[in-house]
Amino acid sequence: MGRKPQDIDKIVMELVNSDDAAAKKALAAKIRALAYKKGIYLSSIQGLYEARGKGEFSGFTVPAVNLRSMTYDLARAMFKVAIRNNSGAFIFEIAKSEMGYTAQPPVEYSAVILAAAVKEGYKGPVFVQGDHFQVNAKKFKEDAEKELGSLKALIAEAVEAGFYNIDIDSSTLVDLAKPEVRKQQFNNYDVCARLTQYIRQVQPRGIEVSVGGEIGEVGAKNSTPEDLRAFMQGFRERLRKGRKGISKISIQTGTSHGGVVLPDGSIAQVKLDFDTLKTLSRLAREEFGLAGAVQHGASTLPAEAFHNFPAAETAEVHLATEFQNMILDSRHFPAELKAKIYEWLKVNAASERKEGETEEQFFYKSRKKALGPFKKEIMALPKEIKDAISSEIEAKFEFLFKQLNNVDNRELVNKYITLKRVISRKRTEREAVVHDGEGAD
User: Fold this and answer.
1) Interacting residues of 296 by C-beta distance below 8 A, sequence separation 6+
2) What is the per-residue pLDDT across 371-419, written as a single tens digit (0 to 9) for each?
């Protein structure tokens, strides 16, 4: 007999609350098997992005959303919005750093997303992405191979868990002190090519992981056409012949992760350079066949800015901090739990407090670090509280999907994405083609 629909909630709770890696893996396998039966497949967005790079369609921007807390509830909200708007192009992602401070390892994150799709009756490809798989510049300088080895281990773990979309961030290695742009970008494109080749070695047979590169570290100087050309030319030279390269490129246009927090705790208005975004997106497509440019650090931008992304033909936009803020600052979030979190931060994040910083600034910047330690308490909140918070964020998702013109593209996604079932056995991967050569149902 089939498992009752409501059982998925129980499996998710067991998965999130378990501290045993083997138990998490077993529960995740249960969820993935159930998802397959329902026609839900972890997928790579590569085929869609290749088509965009060839000019086969345009006009919308793919939202990539980092879920740091209440992941199951918020993923359900996003699937609801996608179903209502007939959208198939949206990504759930989590950064290397977020996996740590939110206590969400890859195997848990991807399984919870699949469970949300099962719960909402969504069918077809589901895109889960490793965001900012970032090289630590200091550690790279001390021992490059050791630092890259740790990233390779994370990549292997993520791919095993169904992260078939990975953004490599070696932009931390750009050296602006060098006189020539090509030399400035050397370590960036060299490392990106090496890690791309590694991804190609560990990806499941029949699945081409969508890989992103980055030419400008978020919060640093704005990217230029010279930066993009230098990176791409060097990257292509370093990449082994016959290997697929990257599908998109992240650039810097004036944003910063989490926004710039003012003394009263509010966020400073940021002037984002949409001309740079439009120029580099077009150049990425026309000269290198990429889907276009990717914008990071966008969730705290003013609401009136978002319609500019599809107008600038931005391929993808990353959204994270605002949803965390909406959870913690919701009138429905228990005041006593928030006070408990802030007291915890005073002790456990005290070293992060900078001189002259107000309490509001300190809490705003550090509170994400409490999401892991308080994950189980937040997950255990009464259903009516989680539903009320999710409803508020669902309205935000609805707004963003429409502003990004990410509507009525499900058939387009199905045209370019082939569903494949991946079976993992002792570090080897075998794939079974569901519709060989055809799009998703």
Assistant:
1) 218, 250, 252, 255, 257, 318
2) 999 999 999 999 999 999 999 999 999 999 999 999 999 999 999 999 9
For residue 93, give the nearest of 210, 232, 219, 214 by alpha carbon. 210
The token pair at 271 is 């002037």
List the end-to-end C-alpha distance of the chain, in Å, as a whole number.
25
Cβ–Cβ under 8 Å, residues 195 and 155 = yes
Residue found by looking up tokens 């590169």 in the block:
213
Contacts of 411-414 with CB under 8 Å at 24 or more apart are: 411/88, 412/48, 412/57, 412/88, 412/89, 413/48, 413/88, 413/89, 413/124, 413/125, 413/439, 413/440, 414/88, 414/124, 414/125, 414/439, 414/440, 414/441
What single-letter amino acid sits at 229?
R
Provide the whole-model pTM. 0.92
Sign of the torsion angle spanned by Cα atoms 288, 208, 140, 104: positive
The tokens describing 17, both together, are 């609350």
Say how far apart CA 425 and CA 429 lie, in whole Å: 6
> Which tokens go with 327?
């959870």
Residue 242 phi/psi, 5-degree rounding, is 90, -10
Domain ranges within the chain, ordered by starting residue? 7-334+384-433
Class of domain 7-334+384-433: alpha beta
In the structure encoding, which two tokens stand for residue 378, read together?
A: 């937040």
Q: pLDDT tens, 54-105?
A: 999 999 999 999 999 999 999 999 999 999 999 999 999 999 999 999 999 9
